[in-house]
Amino acid sequence: MINLGIIGTGLIAKIIAKSCVNTGVKVYSVLSRSKNNAESFCREFCGKRGKGYTVPEAFFEDPGLDAVYIATPSSTKEFYMRLCLEYKKHTLVEKPLPSSMFLSEFLELSKERNIIWMDATHFVHNELYNSLPQLINENVGKIVRIDSSFFWPSTDYSHIKFNRRLEDKGALGDLGWYPIRMVLSLIERKEIYKLDSFVLKKETGAILEFNAIGLTNSNITFSMASSYRGSTARQEVTISGEKGEISIRDFVMPYCGSFVYDRMLPFLRVKIASGLKPLVDEEYKRIFFKELQHHRMVYNFIDFIKGNKDKYILDELQRKSLDTIKLIETIQCQSDSLQI
Q1: Ranges for the GFO/IDH/MocA-like oxidoreductase domain (predicted)?
Q2: Which domains does the chain have, with CATH numbers?
């Protein structure tokens, strides 16, 4: 059995810990700045022999620890990932990831030291994502346009995602990771020929929203957006091509299998449309999930460690992770910035 240690005791750490319990993965230990939080987390998820730590070196030096899940603010992730390299611990890390410069180094050193690592993007492990190539081949054909967005209203400005010191990319890194990751699953970052973007910021400098449009060398146009503004959640992707288009309205956190919505709906619906009367000439394909997508992510991480899954799949996931943070950095660097 793989012994997993968790760094952080916040909401997402508890969600993944619960997922581990439900999928038979042992939550072995926890690291927190607070002794009380570490002890409370251990009682809930680690069992009687669980270990709570407040000192990083003691946590990593434990000989029973095999792998680490990092669920801390972005400002601390590089520190903990470097410790994973030093102590040769397999690594599952929440998005957004640290700088592309560091991640490139981490990718190279992790291969040298036989460390399995993966970012914790849930949707790339679900049945919809695995079905996309077939859906596109049958209903889209050659892609000409991709539109991807994730809006999640939030006005609690005391939250760390509005703290530039802890989360310097704001909505671009937090929410924007998903539409950017989806677009990059369909095109190559190096093929992007033109990219225009702007971000909206609070007076504190925290990024509230980003919008980007682009064109690839193969003439695929794309748009990406994420925002904390508004009052309605949106998590949509539309992929258009020479045959027709497909649209998914809940690609990030499906209503049929995510930690937010659990199984509120029995299946995910993919809208298929074509021609000049798409409101008439449309149909829906049902995608059924065998399990919640974050459970499958945990399973896959453990299977990669055990060598039960094709290494090529892991290499592709890692490459797309690096491309995603590189594109986020490009957008952050080049965007027009407007204060609202």
Answers
A1: 139-246
A2: 3-120 (3.40.50.720), 123-295+324-337 (3.30.360.10)
